[in-house]
Amino acid sequence: MGTVVVVTSGKGGVGKTTSTAALGAALAKSGKKVALVDFDVGLRNLDLVLGAERRVVFDFINVIQGQAQLPQALIRDKRLETLFLLPASQTRDKDALTDEGVTEVMSSLRQVFDYVICDSPAGIERGAILAMRHADAAVVVTNPEVSSVRDSDRIIGMLDSKTLRAERGEPIQKHVLVTRYDPARAQRGEMLSIEDVTEILALPLLGIVPESQAVLQASNLGSPITLAEPDSSAAQAYADAARRLTGKKIPMTIPTQKKSFLGGLFRRAA
Amino acid sequence: MNIAIASKPKINFSGRSFLAFVIQPAEPVNDWLADLDRLSRQSLGFFADRPVIVDLSALEPDRETARSVVDAIRTRGVRVIAVEGADASWFAPELAPIARGKEAGRIDLLEDVQSNEPPPAARTIDGPVRSGQAIFHTGGDLTVIGSVASGAEVAASGSIHIYGTLRGRAIAGAMGDRSARIFCRRFEAELIAIDGCYQTAEQSPPEPIGKPVRIRLAGDTFDINVTD
Description:
The structure holds 2 protein chains of 2 kinds. Chain A is built from 14 helices and 8 strands. Chain A has helices at 16-29, 46-49, 60-64, 70-73, 99-112, 126-133, 146-159, 164-167, 183-187, 194-201, 213-221, 225-228, 233-245, 261-265, and strands at 3-8, 34-38, 75-76, 83-86, 115-119, 137-142, 173-181, 205-210. In chain A, α1 (16-29) crosses α13. Chain B is α/β, with parallel strands linked by helices. Chain B folds into 2 domains: 21-113, 2-Layer Sandwich (Alpha-Beta Plaits); 123-226, Pectate Lyase C-like (3 Solenoid), CATH 2.160.20. The longest helix of chain B has 14 residues, at 29-42.
């Protein structure tokens, strides 16, 4: 039986879709069977980030409404044979996602895959609640800045009350994934420090992903960063985070400023 | 020139029967009102959503007495919708004139109100109170083992003890207890209130911020004392 993991945040634009793709690809690379599910009906992005946007025929809602079977809708990644995507519908709205439909799809996916990673939409409304409903574990993506942290705290409160497990009184394993961490800005006090974030959110840290130009480039190429630029600091942070998600204990490294000696020499043109 | 055309009104009338609670004040009225108070305290919110009819027939009052009894009941938060056993014109137009209703039998409140469990004294919350959560404890002191997040709200009839950082709102003495206090390990509150008096972060002095404090009401102002 697979593990359902929800990647959520409350706040929009903090890196849920990027992280879903990066973590999913890292897990698939290590041999796990992974299904990525896009819950953002009407504003789907997971297909773009995975480079699958030209292969979408059937989506989550088609499956729920019986217009397609689950295997017809699942898109296999061209680079990793154990990585699959269940795309969201772009033309419909969230009301088409029914409780029963989602429950059925989740249990089918659980039987086939080791990890089912649900990419939640932003917000605290129906879409976000449906995405977290069946979760066994949660990754709360947070930028180290005040509004993101407060919204993350809100969503953590909902993970403790709106999931099926919470309703049954079973705990769900929650982690914080700090993204877009900029060590220089943290040092200047413009961004919250890691200690501030963990103190406010009171949850274990899954990883610290530094701000990286490579993320946008990978997204443009339609490839998760852990595949496109595996040596970048962001990809390494995601790879470590994926390992921690499987239960391995890996010491946390806080990204530091990269001081490039040669970069300093060449800054002024002749 | 506008010509108004009269058309048949499209208003439908239909009948519906409801069950209303009837309370019947008895002499001596002050004792009866004291009993009503006890009922309200034991079962908070009992009258909050219920429409109530006051039956004054046991008192056979004059206009003055009738109005003062009904007023006394209303100030206790009971929603009186009509009066029986007294001249309806004494209460017009605030209360609807109502024909004598059909008896629907006694409603036994006893099991609702008198439970064998003692009323809860203090409540402890194990873990942080997350943004958006609101806790209201009516039975005394509230203790939080953890922080109260920005955008969260904790309220209690007694004192509030926070073994963590208070970043949200803390409302103590919420049911009229001026002696209630607020304690926290780190004071960064958005708003504090004791028995209706409140103060926002902006109005608070800067010295206690980030420190462990004990907050009480001294007269009408907050006394925020930094503890060690």
